[in-house]
Amino acid sequence: MAAAGAAHLSSGKINLGVLRDHYRRELIECIDKCTGTKALVWDDALTGPFGLVAEYSLLKDHEVEKMFPLGPKTLQASNVQNIIFLTRPKLKLMELIAQNLLNEDHKGPQRTEFHLIFVPRKSLLCEKKLKEMGVFGTFTSVEEFSLELIPFDNDLLSMEIDTTFRECYLENDFTTMFYVAQSIMTLQALYGIIPYIYGKGDCAKHVVEMMRRMKGELGGREPQITPQIDNLLILDRNVDLLTPLLTQLTYEGLIDETFGLNNTSVKLPAEKFIPKNQKPDEPLEPKKFILNSSDELYADLRDKNFNAVGSIVSKKAKAITLEFDERHQAKTVGEMKQFVTKLPHLQKARESLTTQTSIAELVKEATNSDGFMETLRCQQDFTNGLETDKIHPYIEECIAKKDSITKILRLICIQSYCNDGLKPKILEYYKREIIQAYGFEHMITLMNLEKTGLLKTHGNRTYAIIRKSLKLIVDDVNEQVPNDISYVYSGYAPLSIRLAQYLARPGWRSITEVLNLLPGPKVEEIQQIPVALRKRRNSITSSHSSTGEQRVTLVFFLGGVTYAEIAALRFLAQQDEGGTDYLIATTKIINGSGLIETMKEKIESVKLNPF
Amino acid sequence: MATADWNPLGNVYYRNVELYQMDWNGLLELNQYMIAAAPYGGPIALMKDDKKTGRVSTNVKPIINVYNAAGKPLSQLRWNSGNVVHLGWSNTEELLCIQDNGVILVYDIALNFKRTFGMGQEAKEMKILDWKVFSSFQGTGIAVMTTSYRIYLINNVDDPRVRKLAEVPDLNSAPSSWTILNLDRQSRALVAKDAQLFLVDHGGQYQEQFPELASTVTAFIEMAVSFNNKLLAMFTDKGVIWIGSSDLKKVYCEFNTKASQRPQQLAWSGVGAVVALWDKLCIVVGPEKDWIKYNFESFVYLVQEEDGLRIIGNELHQFLQKVPDVTEQIFKIGSMEPGAMLYEASKEFSRRSQKADEYIRMIKDKLDVAVDQCIQAAGHEIEPSKQKALLRAASFGKCFLTDYRPEAFVDMCQMLRVLNQVRQFSVGIPLTYTQLNHLSVPVLIDRLVLRKLFCLAIRICHYLKIPDAEGASRILAHWACYKVQQKHEDEEQLARSISQKLLDAPGVSFSEIASQALEQGRKQLAIKLLDYEPKASEQVPLLLKMDQNNTALSKAVDSGDTDLVYTVLLTMKDKISNMGEFFMAIRQMPIAYSLYIQYCRQQNPKLVEDLYYQEDNFLAEGNCKVVSSYSEEMFEDRIRKLEAAITCYQKAKMEFASKQTEDQIKLLKIQRKLEDESNKTYIDMSLHDTMYKLTQNGNHKMTEQLRKDFKVPDKRFWLLRMEALAESSDWTELERFSKSKKPPVGMEAFVDVCMKYYNRTEAMKYVNRVTPDQKVKCLVKVGNLKEAADSALESRNEDSLNIVLSKAIQSNNKQLIETIRDYKIRLNTKK
Fold first, then answer.
1. Which segments of A369-404 does DSSP mark as H helices, in order?
2. Do A443 and B562 make contact, defined as CB atoms within 8 angstroms?
3. Stated pTM of the model
4. At CA A367, angle to CA B796 and CA A394, rounded to 5?
């Protein structure tokens, strides 16, 4: 079933095409349970992830004729035999579904059958809600489709659950951790038991405990596969709240920071992508691009520091021109023919070059602004431990100019982190300023930030020690030809990735003290593998032997990971002496703004009665 | 001689092997009993039959006895239900007791009552006349004929659905014989109305059948279907046995027994011969009209098997089977088959005779066939000594082969060992190798478990290396279920002994054992056992059923499965009517508690507030009030909510929050007043925005008032005011403001704000007032690059000059670029 558009998934160290096929089989099984023509009604948040797993033609092969997004009045007259709702188990969505069904009833009797598929899991509460609204009986079947980790690229999996951090640290709701544990069990079923587990943070411990339970529940029926993944590293976002707050400076990271990447696609202003001479009369719809490693050039660019992008693009442009020029030198028919066979590939490359150049220009516009540069300077002051115990004039100015609240909160949180908590007076000043400038309703958001520790008052001095012992700040960073992961933030090495790096070599024992300073417990666990299934190593001496093959480590970020962190891990994997390949899984690919956004308390004000 | 007990039947042989000397010998007379024996060497049920003993029926309730195939008693039951007319066994070895009213009672092998079902209203009212227990495609079926000659059948005793078959036309008296045939995955009845044959189905169809028939017939009086359902034998009133296919399309032979009497039993031995039994005489008839006669000393009962026929008597239990081909090939006198040669060779070898070599040489190139034959033949022997001899021969032959795969040999050794074990008198399951292959090892193990032979079952599993999850664990689970039913044992000890044995067994469902214990009314034992269940999803519902709410809740929380936690929470909420008590119960578990709050937040926000109030979480309560204040439509209500929030914050000692809330109330009141005065909306704006709007509307006095009241920092106030004035193009006021006192912001901020609203002229005014070090930057901002360059030169600042240069390059101002380069040279030379 290796379908079109997914070939790049199979090219990694671990073939993620297998996982995708697993999901496709499960989905088709679910859909095929009802016979006849079908219409699918989508929970909007699912369409993106599903697009990465099953394309429309696959669904069409299984008699799906129509698709609608789930809205208050979605159901249009259609003469299909089955209507299938695909939805996350959220009470709000149940209300929508019920509304739809109740409306349908008014239209008189129809011989359509209704089905419900929960993604990823059935929920008692939702079923109860549907019962309360009197529509549960309408469904002929209620199924679940456990789409957990969606393959984004050949080394990247995401669950696309964006509220994880908030749920775990604000609402004390660890449901997602259960899903995470289950998704790791699915991975183990497909790729073998992972022998070594490491983790840091409360949630990581929670997940490892649940995995232990689930293993017990399997009752010895474990997959009999030679492990393809050697290590599992589970990192709780709470262990490193600083990194995601900083502005990412890789190409992909900046695209995400400026335009927002969702499910590997980005929407960009279309004006940039049409020939200059035909300006449209009316504003264009934003144009959508899918960005993943199937585009060679993008695969090359995405993890580079943005400052290195220009030179690569121009080099590539020259190379392509050169290749096109070959046709002039082609003299014999044979040479001509050879050129023609290369042509489709060349044309594709040129097309991709045009696209990437335009995107890079768009990003450049954003990064050239004064605001961007000053924000960056402010961030770098903080991470370097400068000016962290004062009210920062730039933040003050931004508040006065009513810059984006998210940006301001992001900066203050960085300051709080780098100062190990703010002096009460300073924190109070910032809070008062924000409430006065942006409104009283933000008080609750501020409390949320404090509750989760993103904002705090004065605590133990740890940042300086962590910064030094993990070498978070690197002064002589080389953005063009990097020699250290710090290039992804132009001088700051992501703490989370440093932990991964130290784990691979020389091991966490060397940084025990720092680990103890970071929040949450440390977990180390060995899962026994039957002797028959153990990997045979080329060298007998040691598993860390340099002649041995590369080991694969799955790094699971609970609460999200940024593109820059992903880039840093990929950088580590490419290092010759590293000896470790990385597979990255996360609950969601995030950036600082998104993280802050989920912490906000959404308050809607009712219009006051004037009397 | 191995062939001593062989009887030729045409060109094949039949042999009658002794399986057991019956344990019941001398204790009972079979001919006085109603008999049911299960196939595959299954158990035998006996019940005294009044009709057979000739006694007048008494009121004494009859006794049902179950024996194993060796006649060893297994269980006993005094019957106290209706009038049993027939006994039968299902394919899962359940005893089916058919009563004359069509009600069937099902018992397990230990005669524990399992369930009951009827064959329909008509059978109940009219009583039944005749019955057949047959194997259908779905399992074991039962057909009954009522006294009004209608046939009802079910296809599966595990899922009894009564179907009525079509009626045979003009059937006014009992049919002369009938049977059930399995054709095309459907059960149909073949009914003989004297010489006429009808095939009836439950679709309401009947078809008269006209099988090819040479002799004249006035009535078919007996019928028998072969084990595999493919062959049919019919006995006519003239003593002829008709043998053909079960679809009646093919005839093999008609054999005249010259017997006028109806045979006592008509049965198939495997698929090769029909056996008719009259009292102590039986005739075996082959498809080519060949026949063998056997005499018995007393009454016998026949049981069909797939590869033969078991003959159960008072003294003996025998097995009549066609001599398997491979056995014949080896043992037939004068056989030159490789297997026979190898067997001889092996015998000679053990006698240390050189003839062994001669035999081996003769079959040198067919040695592999010879070995296979010996292995196969060993499988067909009942006697361990014969098995050994054959296996020894196979092993001997193997020595001469270099690349012979040993699996077949090893498999056979293992299977024979298992077969010999279960054939033992005490177990009494006389399975043949062929039958075991059909039955499969897991089913055999199930049957041992049914007989409570747990230890043997587990040993077999270990011996055959069946994975624990499929073998030993399952057996242990059954053992445990059996254990908990034994009421005399101490619960504490029982729980301990069960857990000891089962804890290491993978995949044991403790919840199943626990629910068994619960069924037996042993709740404490169930709770103890349930503690070992690894699957929370199975453990929790059972705990709830036993009212172990708190344990259920903590187990659900431990599992991390949110849905499970909600299951417990909502069940508890329904069970505990007193809300306070409910909250008390869930407060012990922070995770459950927060999940409940999450649920309430979506369903009933007011309840959340109450919850926080109950647990004295004043901060959270205050936050709730603040949030809910925004959904109040009336101004006074909103204020009241916020005032309540202040009280909460004060209780929580959150000074900052209470101060801010106070300020908010103050602001709201001012905004309300402003709205009343100006007919413009202010409510829901922040303080900053309010001041901004006031400035734009020229209400500088009020702005100033607010600044004082709310202690707005100078710098922000200035920036705010500048921006507001610039946006509303109030340039005069802006200029006045810039001169009002020493601004806390630099003049460049004024430049910025003017440029933001595109007023270059105004901006220039302020450029002249900026401090010298900012001058170049500001000149660049207003776009006056030439002057910026000049100014940079003047202040001799190369860095500034470079900035201007880069701007010039950007705007592609060639002349200016030249100038600046010139300046730079000048600057450097001056140094």
1. 370-383, 393-400
2. no
3. 0.77
4. 70
